[in-house]
Amino acid sequence: QVQLVESGGGLVQPGGSLRLSCAASGFTFRTYAMNWYRRAPANERDFVARIGSTGSDTNYADSVKGRFTISRDNDKNMVYLEMNSLKPEDTAEYYCNVVVWGRRYWGQGTQVIVSS
Question: What is the mean pLDDT of residues 48-68?
Fold first, then answer.
């Protein structure tokens, strides 16, 4: 079955950087677009970034544009989110997401806390 496992979260100071990873399995990874979402405490889950199946097209939420970079390695079935210039408002649980045959799949999430 489809499995997504995120890692790489943690506590970082404002202005710092983190790299999140998502290991995917159970589907033909190289043929699907992948997404990152996040949910801040007491908020809805919001879109962060998307990458097409080949990695040639990407989209970002306005709030992270210019600071975050999504990438993928189709040989390793991995998708990444490089986060730079982190702000306290980036504090959230970050989730990897894929839609396979019309069904949304989510990982368990990885927590990012931006605080001094």
Answer: 97
